[in-house]
Amino acid sequence: MLIFLCGKMGAGKTTKSRALAKERNAVLLCEDQWIETLYPDQVRSLQDYIKYSNRIKPIVKPLVQNILTTGTPVVMDFPANTIAQREWFRAIFSEIGADHELIYLDVSNQLCLKQIEKRRNEQPERNATDTEEIFTQVTKYFVAPSEEEGFNMVRISRNAYHESHD
């Protein structure tokens, strides 16, 4: 099974990915780790992120498919925040007939910004990219997944006041 996540910047995708990988005894692949390892200190803007993210996808896709064909579940900490990104995930699982699950972290902007501030304080190396300005820029492109897209989706809603699971 391929498990991937959708959620705004600061929604908790990495934290949830780690927990899911542990719960399901799955291989965890993290886009930030790939980019930082292959292109250290190169991401300084949204355009840089897009450039390097697109460079690693042709390497990652067959690797994930190979892992899935062994029967090993894979959790991908790569964003599924646009229709195009979700179609890339669809290609990964559908080409090999694997099961999938899309986890949608429906988190309020207010809570995302609080979590980004906390992360910036805990990881000062992220000060350049974990800002309200970048959050606003990235969020312009965010498209929540819809039932019409046909994914096996689990929605987890959170705001600053309460949490619920659909």
TrEMBL record:
The molecular function GO annotations come to: ATP binding
Q: Which Gene3D superfamilies match?
A: P-loop containing nucleotide triphosphate hydrolases
The protein's matches in InterPro entries, at most eight in alphabetical order, are given as: P-loop_NTPase
What domain of life does the UniProt record list for this protein's source?
Answer: Bacteria
Which UniProt keywords are listed? ATP-binding, Nucleotide-binding
Any idea what this protein is called? ATP-binding protein
Q: Which organism is it from?
A: Leptothoe kymatousa TAU-MAC 1615
